[in-house]
Amino acid sequence: MKLCVIGTGYVGLVGAAIFADWGNEVVGVDIDENKIKKIKNGEMPIYEPGLSEIVLENIKENRLSFTTSIADGMREAEIVFICVGTPQSDTGAADLSAVWNVAKEIGQHLKDYKVIVTKSTVPVGTNEKVREIIKENLKEKVEFDVASNPEFLREGSSVEDMRNTDRTVVGADTQRAHQVMHKLYDHLGTPIVECDLRSAEMIKYSSNAFLATKISFINEIAQICERAQADVTVVARGMGLDRRIGTAFLNAGIGYGGSCFPKDVAALYKTSTDQAYDFKLLRSVMEVNKLQQVNFVDKVKKHFGSNLTGKTLGCLGLAFKGDTDDIRESVSIEVIRQLRGLGAYIKVYDPQASTNARAVLGDTAIEYCEDEYSVMKGSDALFILTEWKQFKGLDLEKVKSLLKNHVIFDGRNLLDKTDVEKSGFTYYAVGKYTKGLKELQDKKVTHTSAVLKNNGS
Ligand code: UGA
């Protein structure tokens, strides 16, 4: 099939590359000339395992090309995908201006029947408005359909996720549009949820909100485990092996971040209030997520006191999760800001995200190290803030020889508590009992409205 993909961010670029890899002829479009130039040379604008190889291979095979012109990109296409960003606006709702602009341009250049598909995460009702905008901007009478085809890929494993999808969701109002979409996806052999536009839009937000709820749920269980002297990792495994629950997204930690969960949960909450409904559970999900950070930093204050002046803290991880260079809404960055704000000098290492982080954290009282062990040299404590796999395999004897104080704060529960404690460290994880924390655990946590405000609701 001939396809056009507008927007070359995570969803658009990975989508265009994988569609081409399936044998389709794909044109990727982006207004950013510089970005297009770089992609054509195999320089990916994002770090994503396996992506550049697929892009280069498909450019070579003439299945994948790029342009800055929507008119050129969509000319021959049977399907035009809208994959532009929908960032969070001040109200918590998604900012859809890029989607509206693209829809307008599509309308101006539409000359024959195409299915215009929104892959960007957009609130319920958006596709109907896309249809209206296209109609208003048509230069001649031409038939078209709109469809909603949300994407469920995760950063860091997006290539894998798109190849091995659990399901494909397609919302459309006509059989003609559904048939075109079947041609693209039937070969995957996984279920296609064929539905109306609004249900498809809701599926995307509901899925992200449910996953965020799972994380906040296990994070609250973690709080109880700490106090009741149980181990949240064991509890999560024991729960997750029940197939009705599942083990995924039950890793307790310092909270979820990234460009999706915080914004999508806030946007769904906004949709609920717009519909005159107060989604109480979702409000708590956001609040709990913020409190995980607060509780983690509280442990540091409990251990060292609230003034960290003169302390050097070695931190591992800046990205919002492992296997990505993305630092958007990264909890790690927020925790580092707070520790630095308490007077600490920070030494930090991330395998991919240091350059991006430096742009927001600057160079004051912070040193960006070349590897994990340099971070530890002379530090008063070690912090694990992002779940990079390589941090799991730390040589504890080496860590011990480098750190000034044998204290580890593990915000992602990456290390084995028994091993770490046997090696002589004081180990603060999330949802695992640590001796001496009684006082902190007894402390009342106040749920302030500021917490919610920070989450954009
Ligand atoms: C998320 C969804 O998982 C994708 O299905 C969706 O397509 C994507 O948003 C999107 O809407 O575009 P992503 O944000 O890339 O994907 O990352 P996740 O792997 O979901 O992780 C999100 C955050 O949750 C990270 O900060 C991670 O550290 C945290 N997390 C994840 C936990 O704290 N515990 C877990 O058990 C899992």
TrEMBL record:
User: For this chain's UniProt record, which GO biological process terms are given?
Assistant: polysaccharide biosynthetic process; UDP-glucuronate biosynthetic process
- Binding residues for NAD(+), per the UniProt record? 30, 35, 86, 121, 155, 263, 328
One GO term in the molecular function aspect is: UDP-glucose 6-dehydrogenase activity
* Enzyme Commission number(s) of this protein: 1.1.1.22
Q: So where does substrate get bound?
A: 152-155, 204, 249-253, 257, 321
Q: Which stretches are annotated as coiled coil?
A: none
The pathway is: Nucleotide-sugar biosynthesis; UDP-alpha-D-glucuronate biosynthesis; UDP-alpha-D-glucuronate from UDP-alpha-D-glucose: step 1/1
SUPFAM superfamilies for this protein: 6-phosphogluconate dehydrogenase C-terminal domain-like, NAD(P)-binding Rossmann-fold domains, UDP-glucose/GDP-mannose dehydrogenase C-terminal domain
UniProt key word NAD: yes
Keyword terms, alphabetized: NAD, Oxidoreductase
Any idea where the UDP-glucose/GDP-mannose dehydrogenase C-terminal domain is?
314-417
Catalysed transformations (reactions): UDP-alpha-D-glucose + 2 NAD(+) + H2O = UDP-alpha-D-glucuronate + 2 NADH + 3 H(+)
Family annotation (Pfam families): UDPG_MGDP_dh (PF00984), UDPG_MGDP_dh_C (PF03720), UDPG_MGDP_dh_N (PF03721)
Active site positions: 260 (nucleophile)
Tell me the leader sequence span. none
Q: Which domain of life is it from?
A: Bacteria
Q: Which family does it belong to?
A: Belongs to the UDP-glucose/GDP-mannose dehydrogenase family.
Name assigned to this protein: UDP-glucose 6-dehydrogenase
Q: What is the lineage of its organism?
A: Bacteria, Katanobacteria
